[in-house]
Amino acid sequence: MARLAVVGVGRIGGEVAYLASSMGIADELVLYDSAPELLKAQVLDLQHTGLETDIITDKQAIRDADVCICSAGLPRNPSVKTRADLLDANAVAVNECAALLKGFDGIVITVTNPMDANNYLLCKQSGIPRERCIGFGGQLDSARFSLALRSRGITGFSFVLGEHGEHQVPVFSTLSRQIPLPMREEILAELRGSSMDVIKGKGGTVFGPALHIAHLTRMILSDARELVICSSVLEGEYGISGCSLGVPVRIGKNGIQSIEEWHLDEWEQDKMDQAGKFVGELCRKAIS
Prior knowledge:
The protein is α/β, with parallel strands linked by helices and 288 residues long. The protein is 41% helix and 20% strand. It has eight helices and eleven strands. The strands form three sheets. The protein has a six-stranded parallel beta sheet. Strands 9-10-11 form a three-stranded antiparallel beta sheet. Helix 1 (11-22) packs across helix 7.
C-alpha cells in the first residue's frame, strides 16, 4: 500500500492528487489545506471520479505517508515577476509544512516557490535528512529546454540544472553540435519567460508541473533509480554548499540515492556558480 500526502491542494496539488489516483500511483491519499472549503471541494471532486483511492483528511496521517508533496502557498501570477519574489509570502506555508513533517520518515517533494530555497528551508526546519528532501522543477525546465531545442532542429539530451527560476542552467555541452554563445543566451532568455507565457494566458501552470510531479512520485515509490534533475541540498557538490540546487540525481525509494557531478563547460559552470550565489542568499534569508 502506497500512501501519498499532499499539503496544499490548489491547482497543482489537486491535479497531482487526481493523477496519482487515476494513474494508480497511490492507494491512499492524505490531503490537507489551510482552506477547509477548498479541501472539501477537492475531496468531493476526486470522489466523483469513481476512482477507489482512499482519501484521508486528518493531517496527523501525513507523518505515516511514504511521500509528501509540499505545494502549499501562493502561486505565481502575472504581477509576480520571479519565483524568488514569493519567498516572504510563502514562508508561513512552508514553515507550517515543516511542522507537520516533524518525525516524518518518508520522502518530501518541495513544489512551493521559490522551490530551491524552500526545499532547503524544509530540510533544515523539519530535520529530515537531505537525501529525503527533493525539490521539483528540473524535470519541467528540462522539458521546456527540449521544446526550445526541437523548434531549432537541435537534437541531444536536454537537461537544465541550477535554480528553478531566473538562474537556471541549460546544459548545452551534451548536445549533438556546438551551440554558439549568442544562441545559448537567446534560449536561456526564452526558458526564463516560458512559464509566464502560460500564466498570462490561463492564470497558472498546471499540466506540466503536475504530470512531472506524478512521474517523480512513481519513481520514488517504485524504487526506479532513474536519472532525473531535482533540487538537492548541496554539501560541496559542484563546489557549492549551503543551498539547494537542481542537479542530476538517481531517485529511488530512499529518495536521492546519489548526486552525479557532471563536467560542465566554462559557460555552464559560470552560470552554475551564479545560481549557487543567488540561491545561497535566498536560503540564508529564508532561515534567518
